[in-house]
Design a protein that fits this description.
about 0% strand, two-stranded antiparallel sheet, about 425 residues, 2 domains, mainly alpha, about 70% helix
């Protein structure tokens, strides 16, 4: 009976998305952190974020098909961002199937993760976002979802033993379900991006009060990322903040650099006792580091065995499961904590070259866009910082093929496209 109710709800959502693409865009963007709220339709299990993404894609395709049949005179212009570099990466993934022990499983992995990622989180938002107004809709949705994660994170401190045991911000659970993921890194990466999403949203408004509110929320979002005690979050947020200050706020640094430095030093001094106390209480830091080292060793050995095209896309957990040292010490196998190790092991040098080519193309577009439009489009730079932080975090984490990373990248690239349309010809 539950399946029928779920299918009915999906049908209603589909009709709403068909009738209003802005609602579809808002829902798609807002849902990206809900990666562990799993729905089961018969034998199929699907996270809430991907369920919304699939419905959004189907609604968009339905509207295109409707226009082709019933409005033949209407021009339909589609945008395919990053098509060729992403295609090269998919080809490298397909080539790796020649070495895969279970090629059908690898083929499903390509469809489930890579193709869905491109269609739902790159192609779709790039075509739904037509102007500054629709971009702002997406940024608002993303900011609100990060606020929800932030609030749940701070609430997670309630009831923890602050004196005698290790405490940290993590995802709240509802009846045993952790909608944003159980591991603290899964919310830390989104909070690092969310901090600068709020700073981007600030630039959309001319109202001083609203701008101050956005800055305050960005501060508490960043603080939540710090108090996850994720070392990856500390590194990522530090790089993001320094980049933002030295580029976007360079004029303020010239005028108030001394005061800002003093404030930063005071904050560090205030937090040192907390970090010192937590370093004493946290017994898991060593085992976490050893875990990552062993995963890297597994990846390196797999790459040495098949260095050119790898062991096969999506097989990393199988490689870990076959490692007696890991299963004896840590139990169930897990995915690679870092895209470099994962891609080298699964897709070899060919896959890593395709991935780096994709990243270089993105970086080139972003750098050129910022240099050309930063002063005219002030929300562009913090949006790019948010996207870069989410991508950089994947050096240490496992969300490399998830919408919460790539949707923000798409928003940044789309923002550059919108700026190009508005200011490019004049320059």
């Amino acid at each position: 009976m539950l399946n029928y109710y779920l299918l009915a709800a999906v049908s209603v959502i589909f009709i709403v998305f068909v009738s209003n693409s802005n609602i579809s865009l808002f829902a798609l963007t807002f849902s990206v952190p809900f990666i562990n709220w799993i729905f089961k339709i018969y034998s199929l299990e699907i996270p809430f974020s991907d369920l919304i993404a699939i419905i959004s894609v189907l609604a968009w395709l339905f509207n295109i098909l409707f226009a082709l049949i019933f409005k033949p005179g209407q021009k339909i212009k589609l945008n395919f961002p990053l098509f060729f570099p992403f295609l090269f990466f998919i080809i490298a993934a397909a080539v790796s199937l020649f070495n895969h022990s279970q090629p059908l499983s690898g083929f499903y992995y390509i469809i489930r993760w890579l193709i869905l990622l491109y269609v739902a989180y790159i192609l779709l938002p790039a075509n739904l976002i037509k102007d500054k107004r629709s971009l702002k809709t997406a940024v608002i949705a993303l900011a609100l979802s990060s606020l929800l994660v932030t609030i749940s994170g701070w609430l997670s401190l309630w009831g923890q033993d602050w004196q005698n045991s290790f405490f940290r911000i993590y995802s709240l659970h509802i009846n045993g379900v952790y909608p944003f993921g159980y591991n603290h890194n899964l919310i830390a990466e989104f909070l690092c991006a969310g901090t600068f999403i709020w700073l981007a949203l600030k630039e959309f408004s001319a109202n001083d009060r609203w701008r101050r509110i956005c800055i305050a929320i960005a501060f508490f979002t960043g603080a939540a990322a710090i108090f996850t005690f994720s070392r990856a979050a500390w590194i990522t947020l530090s790089i993001q903040t320094l980049t933002y200050l030295f580029w976007h706020e360079r004029e303020s640094l010239k005028r108030h650099g001394g005061l800002m430095l003093l404030t930063g030093l005071m904050l560090i001094v205030m937090m040192v006792p907390i970090f010192w106390r937590m370093s004493i209480l946290q017994a898991d830091n060593v085992s976490s580091t050893e875990n990552r080292v062993l995963l890297t060793e597994i990846a390196y050995e797999a790459w040495q065995d098949k260095p050119i095209i790898g062991q096969g896309i999506g097989c990393f957990t199988d490689l870990v499961a076959d490692n007696i040292r890991f299963t004896a010490k840590y139990g169930a196998p897990i995915d690679s904590h870092g895209f470099l190790q994962k891609i080298l092991a699964e897709m070899g040098v060919l896959g890593l070259a395709a991935w780096l080519f994709l990243i270089i193309i993105i970086a080139k577009k972003v750098i050129i866009g910022i240099k050309r439009f930063d002063k005219k489009v002030p929300w562009l730079f913090p949006l790019c910082i948010a996207a870069g932080g989410g991508l950089f975090f994947q050096i240490f984490n496992t969300s490399y093929y998830k919408g919460k990373v790539w949707l923000i990248i798409t928003l940044a690239l789309t923002a550059i496209t919108i700026a190009e349309k508005q200011y490019g010809k004049k320059n």
